[in-house]
Amino acid sequence: MIEFGSRVVLTVICLGLVVVIHELGHFIVARFFGVRVEKFTVGFGPEIVGWTGGHTRYAICAVPLGGMVKLAGDMMDDQKNQADEFFSQPWYRRIGIALAGPVMNYLLAFFLFALVACVWGVLTPSEQPIIGDVVPGLPAAQAKLQTNDRVDQIDGVPVANWEQMATLIHDKAGRPVRLNVRRPSEPKPIVLELVPQRDPSTGVGLIGIVPQIDKIKPGFVKSFSYAGRDVKMWTMQPLHYLSDKISHFEGPKELSGPLGIAQMVTKATKEGVSYVIYLIAIISTGLGLFNIFPIPVLDGGHIFLYAVEGLLGKPLNKRVMALANAVGLSIVLTIFFYASYQDIVRLHHGFWR
Fold first, then answer.
1. What are residue 233's phi and psi, to 5 degrees?
2. Which is it for strands 157-158 and 190-194: parallel, antiparallel or unpaired?
3. Which positions ≥6 away from 133 have C-beta within 8 Å?
4. Average pLDDT over residues 4-33
5. What is d(CA 178, CA 190) in angstroms, rounded to the nearest whole number?
């Protein structure tokens, strides 16, 4: 029961943080453009504590999951044609307000990725020709290569680094090679023979080994370049994944909902604080990316509609906006229930154990 409670609390903190930061982006830019913010809440449901500052009601609510920003006149039917209302702003300002949420998520992710790199270091493949792991069933495993083995020579050619070793193996597809290996448990070098397997997609020789992983601390300045790399990686990876699934007409079975995120948070806490922070950065990147998708109801959908308004030079029809939002809400709910179903399936099959 205690473990379940801690899992819920950690999940709430992770999801709550990234959503509140998202809403804070909308809040800051709306205020900058002079739009009246009627309410800013942390959580949902009944207020636990609240106060009013200027025209804004600030509150902490009973359901501590996410938050909300209520802008004056952000629904077409509620407009009173006042200058400080959302829909009284030019279309490009409304785009700026909508875009601010995803931008804040990306800024949070960038900062957290940089924090982890600077304080705890980053995992990077070693340049040394030392085997970090062996893939079962491939030539290296069949030849009895082991983790921590160091390859000194390939067919009599001295090996200085991992890249050189990989190149020599790639060039030997389907032909026998002799490896001179130093093994920590053996007093003398040993010689192993194997035949690299030809990769059908690239034609190069593979034996099924991966490099040793080192942890390095890049320092304050260089940590930002690693943060940029991670932001790019966690943005492009989901896009490539979705593109592949769409092209093959497959469902995204790896999609995770709240239950899956809770399990990932639990796993991360067992690894340490840095893993939890890194996971929050991944979630923040995902939330920012998802909200940019041009689906009505999401920020990306609003951005698309306001851009169309700008191109047409006139406000969009209220019925068109209402229909677009209804369709968008249906899509978002479908994604949510599908992801939750996949979480339950993975839980049933013991994936998270």
1. -60, -45
2. unpaired
3. 147, 209, 210
4. 83
5. 10
322: burial class by Cβ within 10 Å (0-12, 13-18, 19+)? middle
> Do the bridges between strand 122-125 and strand 131-134 make them parallel or antiparallel, or are there none, so unpaired?
unpaired
DSSP assignment, residue 199? P
Helix (H/G/I), strand (E/B), else coil: 172: coil
As a whole number of angstroms, the distance between CA 70 and CA 72 comes to 7
pTM assigned to the model: 0.76
* DSSP for residue 260: H
What is the DSSP code string of 110-160? HHHHHHHHHHT-EEEE-SSSBEEEE-TTSHHHHTT--TT-EEEEETTEE--
CATH number of 125-215: 2.30.42.10
The per-residue pLDDT of the chain, averaged, comes to 85
How confident is residue 349, by pLDDT bands cut at 50, 70 and 90?
low
Helices 318-348, 258-271: axis angle to 10 degrees equals 50
Q: If you write DSSP's letter for every residue of 69-82 in order, what string do you get?
A: EEETT-SGGG----
Bridge partners for 134 per DSSP: 209
Query: Interhelix angle for 299-312 vs 91-119, to 10°?
Result: 140
Provide the b/e sequence for 97-121 (b: ≥16 CB within 10 Å).
bbbbbbbbbbebbbebbbbbbbebb
pLDDT in tens, 232-267: 999 998 888 778 777 777 666 666 666 666 667 667
Nearest-angstrom CA–CA distance, 45 and 36: 22
User: How far is it, in rounded angstroms, from Cα 78 to Cα 71?
Assistant: 11
Residue range(s) in the chain whose domain bears CATH number 2.30.42.10 = 125-215
69, 101 Cβ separation under 8 angstroms: no
CA distance 288 to 8: 23
Determine the average pLDDT of the residues in 90-115. 96
